[in-house]
Amino acid sequence: MVLKNDNLNISTMKVFQYSISTSLIWCSFDFGTVVANDKDEARTKAIAQLTHDFNVANDALKPFGFTIEFNKDEVEIVEL
Question: Measured between alpha carbons, how far is residue 20 from residues 7, 26, 37 in Å?
C-alpha cells in the first residue's frame, strides 16, 4: 500500500509470519514474524533471524556434542 500526498510518498510495510516446514525439530525459535515490504524481503529477514537463533542454540548445544541445522528452502513465509 502506498499513501500519497503532494510531498510524501510513504509505503506501508507488511507483517509476515515465518516457520520451518520440517517436523524434525520442535523448538521455540523456528518460527516468528518480520516486517518487510514484500515476501522476498521477508524471506531474507526470516533467514537472517533463523540463522542467528540457530547459532545461539548451537552455541548452547556444542558442549554436549550436538548441533541443529535448518534448510533455507524449507522456510515458509505467509503475509498476515
Answer: 42, 10, 21
